[in-house]
TrEMBL record, chain A:
It comes from Pelotomaculum schinkii. Residues 1-20 form the signal peptide. The gene is braC_4. Gene3D superfamilies: 3.40.50.2300. Transmembrane segments: none annotated. This is Leucine-, isoleucine-, valine-, threonine-, and alanine-binding protein.
From TrEMBL, chain B:
The keyword Lipid metabolism does not apply. It comes from the Bacteria. Belongs to the binding-protein-dependent transport system permease family. LivHM subfamily. It comes from Pelotomaculum schinkii. The keyword Cell membrane applies. This is High-affinity branched-chain amino acid transport system permease protein LivH. GO terms for molecular function: L-isoleucine transmembrane transporter activity; L-leucine transmembrane transporter activity; L-phenylalanine transmembrane transporter activity; L-valine transmembrane transporter activity. InterPro entries: ABC_transp_permease, BCAA_transport_permease. The lineage of its organism: Bacteria, Bacillati, Bacillota, Clostridia, Eubacteriales. Its main location: membrane. GO terms for cellular component: plasma membrane.
Length: 391, 295
């Protein structure tokens, strides 16, 4: 009998733990349903490894919804966000997307990462729900279908522009290239950097690959320490980037790294401390207090007021633009039915957002300029260069 | 050029291996006594790392106090796990406590994730002056030396305890024959608790050292390290204390060399590859004794 009691307690505790783990799904907002609101889904991680992207994107979306609703809404209806948190878990993302669709959202904004956007797109396209990613920068996203969009600067144009800057302004000649294998974003970015590096006359003297969630990079760094190079091109995320740089400093290597917006997160300098000082990250948006004008300036001020004077990075700005883009397309189509307003969305041209001017080309890819190269300075990212994109 | 890199990779491998060894010691002892693979051992190590982090960030203690605190938190935790999840199942089938161990492991991961508010990694602050020494072709840091020294000292201490003390004698008797030992007046429950306590103390210390070395800890850090340390214990010869140490260092070197040779994608598979090889060709492990069964 006594034995059974122990077992029961254990089973109960386990069940509790599993329930707690399963709570990360879509959250139903109490005043849901009814024809007087237009529901926009948020798909992203509010917890987990890429939580920063999701939390910030959602903040921007909420700001846009507040702005729109206080100005009278869209076609006489209020906007409402339905949250879907997948906990940075790609296997969970499909369920959360499905759940958002059953909650009758008109469009989904998300996911901030390329890999999850692609898998969510496979569900949204047949379900005829517009998916607008506010962060996917890798290849192979809008190709999935005519319901799939994004409002970010593409790696395919940003990475070559940054490469030119590394070669011409920083005079880098030899680089080490580090890829996170198995990570769609990183492998995609590496495949863009490789031809770009060759085009601007830079030589890849060493190539190393790492894995997501690794913490020990001693072997890879030792292999790099045998080579002469001017800098590291790192295509993975901030956690691994920070730890990789720490290991480099430990082994006496002083080069800085340059990489994409996967490195953009406060965790980069929080984890990396001194090792990441001077490292460069490019993104489609940066707070450029000197040159910001109009909408962008207004957005920055509003964000600061709501977030204890913190400055926004690209994620809230892109989240804000994503909701605004959808709202404008719905207004133009006078409908919140995705099968109707998606055509208006596709025709977006010279649209002014807080992240710059957006035009969807004939392949529905966004054309944006410029790219902001930012540098880690102390406990912040500072704009190092504003690189125009010429297409 | 090649040799310079070789020696440096060897240093990397020995450091990584020492961390595996510290945790493998816990697996090997528990298995030696009650033939249980304690799959929650990796989580004890994770909780040790978090305890160390809380000690150095909230209470601003030095690292020795942090290690001590981690050990002191892990000991009652492991004893509690044994009491709640394993002891009631000691007379059931061999599979029951194993499944129970997996359950405890998931429970602890989820619990820490909930308390911490998400699985993203936390930075471990620099608690000691991590000086880098250059010796001929290799560079190594204070933390690396610390890990190796701690692992070696703890192993020697453990070997001494098992060989020459009263409780050690009781442990060996219990591992030899559980039933007879208890008939001879040995309090086997106390022996088992002691074994769990020692293993947990080592894992807790290991967690803090690894936190200091890799600067990042998260609620799932025990999973892969736990499995690899288990492999290390089997490769070295499960039940053998020097075997765990040897197995850990062997696998650490194998992993680092594997990555250096370009098999980085298969990094996680290297330990399991060796596990399979050892089980196929020398099931008792490198230092394990052949099993003798009296008929």
């Amino acid at each position: 009998m006594k034995k059974n009691r122990y077992l029961l307690v254990l089973v109960a505790l386990l069940a509790l733990a599993l329930m707690a783990a399963g709570c990360g799904g879509a959250k139903e907002t109490p005043k849901a349903a009814g024809g007087d609101t237009i529901k926009i889904g948020f798909l992203g991680g509010l917890t987990g490894g890429h939580a920063h992207y999701g939390i910030e994107t959602l903040k921007g979306m909420q700001m846009a919804v507040d702005d729109i609703n206080s100005a009278g809404g869209v076609n006489g209806k209020k906007l409402e966000i339905v949250q879907g948190d997948h906990g940075s878990n790609s296997s969970e993302a499909a369920n959360v997307t499905q759940k958002l669709i059953t909650q009758k959202v008109s469009a989904i904004v998300g996911d901030p990462t390329t890999g999850i956007t692609k898998s969510a797109a496979q569900i949204c396209q047949p379900a005829k729900v517009v998916l607008l990613s506010a962060g996917a920068v890798g290849p192979g996203v809008v190709e999935i279908g005519d319901y799939i969009y994004r409002d970010t600067l593409l790696d395919a144009v940003a990475a070559p522009a940054v490469t030119r800057y590394l070669a011409e302004d920083l005079k880098w000649k030899k680089v080490a290239l580090v890829t996170t294998t198995g990570l769609s974003y990183s492998e995609g970015l590496t495949s863009i950097f490789k031809p770009a590096l060759a085009k601007y006359g830079m030589e890849i003297v060493a190539e190393q690959s790492i894995m997501e969630k690794d913490t020990n990079f001693s072997a890879q760094v030792t292999a790099l320490s045998q080579k002469q190079f001017d800098g590291v091109v790192f295509t993975g995320y901030y956690t691994e980037g920070a730890l990789f740089m720490k290991e480099m400093r430990k082994q006496g290597l002083n080069q800085v790294m340059a990489g994409g917006d996967g490195l953009l997160g406060k965790e980069l300098y929080e984890l990396g401390e001194n090792a990441v000082q001077g490292s460069m990250v490019y993104a489609g948006f940066a707070v450029d207090t000197q040159n910001a004008t109009g909408k962008t300036k207004e957005f920055i001020e509003k964000y600061k007021a709501k977030n204890n004077n913190a400055l926004p990075d690209m994620f809230p700005a892109q989240g804000y633009d994503a909701v605004m883009l959808l709202a404008d397309a719905m207004k133009a189509a006078n409908s919140s039915d995705p099968t109707v307003f998606k055509d208006k969305l596709a025709q977006t041209k010279d649209w002014q957002g807080v992240t710059g001017t957006i035009t969807f080309d004939e392949k529905r890819e966004p054309i944006k300029s410029p790219v902001y190269l930012q540098e880690v300075k102390g406990q912040a990212f500072a704009v190092k260069a504003v690189i125009p994109i010429t297409q | 050029m090649f040799w310079q890199q070789f020696w440096q990779q060897l240093v990397n491998g020995v450091t990584l291996g020492s961390t595996y060894a510290l945790i493998a010691l816990g697996y090997t002892m528990v298995y030696g006594i009650i033939q249980l693979i304690n799959f929650a051992h990796g989580e004890v190590y994770m909780i040790g790392a978090f305890t160390g982090l809380i000690m150095v960030t909230v209470y601003k203690v030095n690292f020795m106090v942090a290690i001590l605190a981690a050990m002191l938190v892990c000991i009652p935790l492991a004893i509690l796990i044994e009491r709640v999840a394993y002891r009631p199942l000691r007379r059931s089938t061999r599979l029951a406590p194993l499944i129970s161990a997996l359950g405890v492991s998931i429970f602890l991961q989820t619990l820490i994730t909930l308390i911490k508010g998400g699985p993203n990694p936390l930075a471990f602050p620099q608690v000691i002056q991590d000086t880098v020494y250059v010796l001929g072709p290799v560079r190594f840091s204070t933390v690396q030396v610390l890990i190796l020294v701690m692992a070696s000292l703890l192993m020697v201490f453990l070997q001494f305890t098992v060989k020459y003390t009263r409780i050690g004698k009781a442990m060996r008797a219990t591992s030899e024959d559980y039933e007879t030992a208890s008939l001879m007046g040995i309090n086997v429950n106390r022996v088992v608790s002691f074994t769990f306590a020692v293993g947990a103390a080592l894992a807790g210390a290991g967690g803090v050292l690894v936190g200091m070395y890799f600067n990042s800890i998260h609620p799932f850090m025990g999973v892969s390290v736990g499995l690899k340390s288990f492999c290390a214990a089997v490769v070295g010869g499960i039940g053998s204390i020097p075997g765990a140490m040897l197995g850990g260092i062997f696998l650490g070197i194998a992993e680092v060399m594997g990555v250096a040779a370009g098999f980085d994608t298969y990094k996680e598979a290297i330990a399991f590859g060796f596990l399979i090889l050892v089980l196929l060709f020398k099931p008792t492990g490198l230092l394990g004794l052949p099993i003798q069964r009296k008929v």
